[in-house]
Amino acid sequence: MKNTAPEPEMQLSVDSSRREDKTQGLIAKDKESDLERAADPTLTEDLALALLARNTLSVEAIEELSKNRSLSSARKVRVGMVVHPRTPRRISLKLLRQLHTFDLMRVALLPVMSGDLKRAAAELLVSRLGSITLGERISLARRAPEIVAAALLLDKEPRVVQAALENPRLSEGAIVKVLARPGATTALVQAVCRHGKWSPRHEIRLALLRHPKTPLDHALRLAHSMPSALVRDILHGSQLSEKLKSCLRKELDLKV
Questions:
Q1: pLDDT tens digit string along 81-103?
Q2: pTM metric for this prediction
Q3: How far is the C-alpha of 191 from the C-alpha of 175, rounded, in Å?
């Protein structure tokens, strides 16, 4: 009897099906292997980091890594789990609380991180400001996200305030909001008055003219640089002392 060869299309379909079955089998085997490695109590930090370097690592394997007690003190592994794209949000939030200060800052600045995790990291940083060293506060003031830099504008140490004002992520709106807070210090007001970048900004000038801690000489300069009608309107709701308001009104009368 003559053997009949399968049609080319049928042969391609069979080969494709076999390759797919083999690939699926390898994936399942790799997944099982990853789970075993992640749960291994002898797993080293380097091997754990090698697992986390793969974006295809399964959620289940990350779950096992997060429960592996041998890695509980491995700082880099905690960071790796937080930033991994497949880490469940609940695990990332739990691990955020265990990160060191500058690891938190890096997470808060990572473009690939989700907005809610970046904000959670920034808010954790703000909650720690009262317990970290002066050097750490200065470093954060220079580089941290806006929410942290804005909080550090209220620091009692002038060097921290000055560093925060130089933060490239700080905005005019954030400074105006901080100036309106009851905790805004004389050091902050004076630093903003002297600052080459921020003192000429319109909204900041208005905020300074309303602020009770703005020095008289600076308030006078502000008043002279604005339309009289605008200044009178600002003074009506300003927190400046009555003595200072009186001086400014006299200057305005002379200006007219």
A1: 999 999 999 999 999 999 999 99
A2: 0.79
A3: 12
